[in-house]
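Exercise: predict the fold of this chain.
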Amino acid sequence: MTEPAGRWRRLRQPSLTRRVLLALTLAVSLSFVVLLAIDWLDLQTGDAGARALPGVTRAMALSLPAGATPADAQAAIAVVRAADRQLHLLRQESGLGLGEVRLRLERATAAAPAAAPLYESPDTPPASAAPDASAILAWAGTRYWVASHRTADWQLTLYEPAPPETTLLRWLGADLLLPYLIALPIVMLPLWWAVVRGLRPLHGFVEQMRARSPDDPRPLALDLRYAELQPLGSAFEALLARVRASLQRERQLVQDAAHELRTPLAVIGAQAHALAHAADAAERARAQAALDRAVERSAHLVHQLLTLAALDDASPAAAAALVDLVALVQQHLAGVAPLAQARDIELALDSPDRLMAAVEPAVLHSILDNLVGNALRYVPDGAQVLVSLAAPAGDAAWVLGVADDGPGIAPQEQARLFERFQRGRDARASGSGLGLAIVRQAVQRLGGQIRVGPGLGGRGVSFEVRVGEGVRRQPPARARPGPAPFTPQSPP
């Protein structure tokens, strides 16, 4: 790209500085036009044009000699004639092409109304057409501003031809143009300086961001002292804080995953070696069973890590759809009912007939997989597991509960219950410690909350998931005396 083309392209780009200066220029120009229009209308009504005439007429009338003798009249006529001649010369020397001023001198105590004036300029409008006070007079195709003053001896009337409209506009524009040209740079320069200086912290912020490496989420330490720029800085600092937290979670997840996978991989290697060097069939069977368990544990851990990574995605739940929560829960319980029956565990569901809500089915299955799976894994044979689903009238749209009467969780361990790779000290079943972390992420994705409480009959533990939006209740559920045991033969 050539230099002129690049400069032209930069000039065509939107600029906040140019926009502010252009807006101010338009505002000042509009003020200029409005003032010109006001003066123009004022002159059109005649008020402004005739405003100065009464003072001039009065000064000329007061300069006339007093007295009623013929000599006094001749002296007054001489004064008015000299003033008329002087005004004529001034008009010619101005070169503006203005019409001639007309003067009329009359006695103030004329015996008859039709008495001839003592002095009158050529082509002066007749006295009968002259108004009593200052006003506008149209005579013989010419507009006059007229002013008259009466003293004890004389009455002087002055006729000032109104300039043409084009001349008026030129005069008014010239009078306003010079103050406009002076005021515009005086106003524009401080504004330009203020805008450029005000945007300087923003330019520094841009340069600081350009100098950053893509993997540097450290705080910016911005000095955005202007109130309009502070929200921008706060938003970027908050974004970087979320990025740092996300990177920290990823590093912690990788470290914990590597630590957790070390044991099953070591077991797999050891059992594979034992299987390869087994002396008899019984030893090979034991090594094969141990190898299968290690592979199953590794596969389960990898599945949970993938599930947790998918739930960590904070993108909107695009797969959310209006579904029947009761049908989803029944379908899930039907899959785990054989495991509960094999251990004589009473698995029950307490829910209405239908409960419609907008959720991601995969997210809800992740919650059920871990809550119900943990309950079945940790409770002893012959225990009870109750799954409940309801839409209360309070602030929650729907509530999912899973309670059991198993060994429960110690209160001092509940504070870190939902952290990754955390397991209770008394946990007897195998696991990776990721199940409840997955549940927490899934509940947050649904926009809900999860609570831990006592289980059935004061024993065990219960988990309550409360989601506050997206539900639409169907016809009321039929009354039940209590939760019904769930079996694979129940309708899904």
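Check your answer against the key: The two ends are 68 Å apart (CA to CA).
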